[in-house]
Amino acid sequence: MASFTQSLISCLALSCSAAMMNLSAAAPAGVLECQKLLLKGPDGRVCIILDATDSKPTISFIDSKGKANLFLTGGDSPTLILKNKTDQEVITVSLDKDQTPQIIMKDKKNLTRMQIQGGDSPAIFIKNGQNEVVATMLLLQDGGAAVGLADKDGDVAAFMRGGTSPSVSFFQKSVEPTAAVGISQNVPHMVLSSPTTKDNIVLHGGDPTSVLFVDEQGDVPILLSKQGLFQAKKESSNQEEKKEGKIFTKEDLLNPLKDKKLNVR
């Protein structure tokens, strides 16, 4: 029996020696190689887990109850995840498939309520309990910024933009705004639109200050200013004659001021 025990111990010693030799051959001196490493505190409790058994290396931080509440994942899309006491993800910091950084914050029902996006098009999105975006802050193409506020269904209700043509537009379940105030072509304007007839009233702050009535074709049949009341003549049937009825066009005046198609789905 004693000889058998000695033989077993010898075999184990040889196996351990062989393993150490293989480890020494694979790794340089002073380097420890492993696929999973558990770090324990003075009380013997695991507090950090380094795991590389999967294709994505992960560092997990363990709380006093033995649950992981902080994850750091590497790989092609590095991610940082924070969990609450009920083991639900509440904050995620990551790079998406286009390598754009983003921060996602969730509620107790695991629904995304706020998202911060970086990259070339930085933006902030806020969602309600129905998963509809109700507030947005984003960057405009001209370098300015804009803020959008929506109703409970996610339809834009107010849109404020800065940049070279600052304005505030108001919507009521419509693609085009029913009211807007801002600066277009370096001139202040206020536009009121009919939701049924698509006619517009424009308060024009230029020189002279005037009130324009714009029809749904974009023509201005009536203009009122300190110089008097002007009413456009009807266009002649001869197309070669000069059009006297157009003082302004919708493209010249309204398009730079209005934020169109914000509620198109």
Describe the largest sheet.
19 strands, antiparallel
Q: What's the structural domain tally? A: 3
Strand content: 35-45%
- Broad structural category: mainly beta
Radius of gyration based on Cα positions:
34 Å
Please identify the oligomeric state.
Answer: single chain
- Uncertain spans: 1-24, 236-254
Helix content: 10-25%
Q: What coarse outline follows from CA principal-axis ratios?
A: elongated
Indicate the mean pLDDT. 79
Per DSSP E runs of 2 or more residues, the count of β-strands stands at 19
- Number of H- or I-type helical stretches: 2
How far apart the termini lie comes to: 83 Å
Question: What is the H-and-E element order?
Answer: HEEEEEEEEEEEEEEEEEEEH
Which helices and strands occur, and which strands form pairs?
Elements: H1 2-26, E1 36-40, E2 46-51, E3 58-62, E4 68-73, E5 79-83, E6 89-95, E7 101-106, E8 112-117, E9 123-127, E10 133-139, E11 145-150, E12 156-161, E13 167-170, E14 179-184, E15 187-193, E16 200-204, E17 210-214, E18 222-225, E19 228-231, H2 250-253
Antiparallel strand pairs: 1-2, 2-3, 3-4, 4-5, 5-6, 6-7, 7-8, 8-9, 9-10, 10-11, 11-12, 12-13, 13-14, 14-15, 15-16, 16-17, 17-18, 18-19
